[in-house]
TrEMBL record:
GO terms for molecular function: DNA-3-methyladenine glycosylase activity; metal ion binding. GO terms for biological process: base-excision repair. It comes from Halomonas beimenensis. This is DNA-3-methyladenine glycosylase. Gene3D superfamilies: Hypothetical protein, domain 2. It comes from the Bacteria. Zn(2+) binds at C5, H18. InterPro entries: Adenine_glyco, DNA-3mA_glycosylase, DNA_glycosylase. The keyword GTP-binding does not apply.
Amino acid sequence: MSHYCDLAPAHPFHGPYHDHEYGFPVDDDDTLFERLVLEINQAGLSWLTVLKKRAAFREAFEGFAVARVADYGEADRERLLADAGIIRNRRKVEAAIHNAGVIQALQADHGSFRAWLEHHHPLPHADWVRLFRRTFRFTGPEIVGEFLMSTGYLPGAHRDDCPVQARILAAGPAWARPGGNPGAGTSP
């Protein structure tokens, strides 16, 4: 089976994501929210489809500003469902809006979405899945695993011999901290 590290380099969409984002720690809540929305939208589709639509998603969701998306009402839902540039799935659109509101509550309780993730880290993959299912909408094992891997909370984004892996380790992902690797996820 091919690994993302074999497929992504030099690809016009996968390459930049693989080389500069996938597996690196993320500090910004809006970026964490973006990753969660993109992973939710990947369900049933290829990651390439999502990456090709990423710019349209950023525009449609106003840069993934958590506070703005959390305030979306029916007119925004309809606008998103009519936007041919994004994935127009009602359950996924509603999950994004709902999850933005959840993240706002987590920010109020923990200071940030990132602080909430840190509060629960480390957990094995199965425990993360249970936690996400209790907290968010549209978050099954694959979505949760990819979200956590892509943001540095679970290992497995890159092979150990991938040149990007050394840069990720230098950036200090949560899974690489002492006691921070109780379970791995999967690759895109």
